Amino acid sequence: MKTLTTALILPLLAGPAFAGKAFVSNERGNTVTVIDTDSWEVLTEFDAGNRPRGITISPDGRHLYVCASDDNLIRVFDTETYEELPSLPSGPDPELFVLHPSGNPLYIANEDDNLVTVTDVETRTVLEEIPVGVEPEGMAISPDAGIVINTSETTNMAHFIDTETFEIVHNVLVDQRPRYAEYNHDGTKLYVSAEIGGTVSVIDLSDDRTGEIVDKITFEVAGVLPEWLQPVGVKVTNDGSRVFVALGPANRVAVIDGETDEVLDYLLVGQRVWQMAFTPDERYLITTNGNSNDVSVIDVEAEEVIRSIQVGQQPWGVAVTPD
Q: Tens digit of pLDDT for each residue in 87-142?
């Protein structure tokens, strides 16, 4: 394991800021790998606590938040110096989270305690603990920031939580083991992936902040066993024209027409593709491939995988600095 030292930090402080960086949480390696998104070179790797999984960056690009699942807290780092800052309370076993568009608060799924914890990132205090279904995981926030979505893996539901009252206002039953939720950018659709169910549920929100399933996207790849087609991460382009779905042990990313919900193509990436993140200009999509210990870089316009980059042990999540 490579650990960041003072000798590495000082040159970074003295030199110019990088144009863009991708931060990759390595679940088994207990590190974060940093990649320059211009050169696609690995810049460094630093310790990030025990079992880092969910990862995100503040809207101003200054702070990196990491779910240190086995430490039962959120670790915080400076995105330029990689210095660890005071951590945030999270509740037990944080796995995924979503940050309010303003940068505060943070909504955290606590897998072992059946709670969503709301944490103030400035005061470092817990604002609320919201009981949800069994094994909460996926988190998303509506474009108007009025609703937070949590998916519970064992209850097989998407829970709609009002961000002002912290109450569940709606539930939608989806397929088995929902892992991720993602709004399109005008808030008219919500996509919920079901890892064991093998589907992505499409929830229509065009008439209301809560809605019902109007479509279920299924997947079929020649030569790949159906049980290997396990949807996890979901990303939607800003214009809504494309939806990308990571298919876990199928080692594919599905490309979906955002208007018709039709699967257009499957892109071969590394082994056990899990989570994804766009670069700010959406020119590239980065995927984490847990069993091949690498990330794949997809050219979004060409819908083509253009490179693979080795990172740490069992990469899980990825976040990219904003413009």
A: 999 999 999 999 999 999 999 999 889 999 999 999 999 999 999 999 999 999 99
Q: What is the distance between the alpha carbons of residues 153 and 302, in angstroms, rounded to a whole number?
A: 34
The CA-atom distances, in angstroms, between 25 and each of 16, 48, 50, 192, 235 are 24, 8, 11, 22, 18
Residues contacting residue 105 through CB under 8 Å, at least 6 positions apart:
99, 118, 119, 120, 121, 127
219: which residues sit within 8 A by CB, 6+ positions away? Answer: 198, 199, 229, 231, 245, 247, 250, 254, 263, 266
**Tokens standing for residue 151:** 């998916």
For the chain, give the mean pLDDT: 94
Whole-angstrom distance, CA of residue 137 vs CA of residue 147:
16
Among 319, 248, 301, residue whose Cα is nearest residue 33: 319
Please state the length of the chain: 323
In three-state secondary structure terms, 70 is helix
pTM score: 0.93
Token digits of residue 82: 């990689």
CA distances from 298 to 91, 210, 288, 303 (A): 35, 33, 11, 7
Tell me how far CA of residue 169 lies from CA of 132, 150, 161, 211, in angstroms. 12, 12, 6, 11
User: What percent of the chain is helix, strand and coil (3-state, nearest 5)?
Assistant: 5, 50, 45
Spatial separation of the C-alpha atoms in residues 87 and 65, rounded to whole Å: 9
Looking at residue 9, what DSSP letter applies? H
Q: What is the 3-state secondary structure (H, E, C) of 227-242?
A: HHCCCCCEEECCCCCE
How far is CA 120 from each of CA 29, 86, 89, 162, 169, rounded to the nearest angstrom?
A: 28, 13, 9, 17, 22
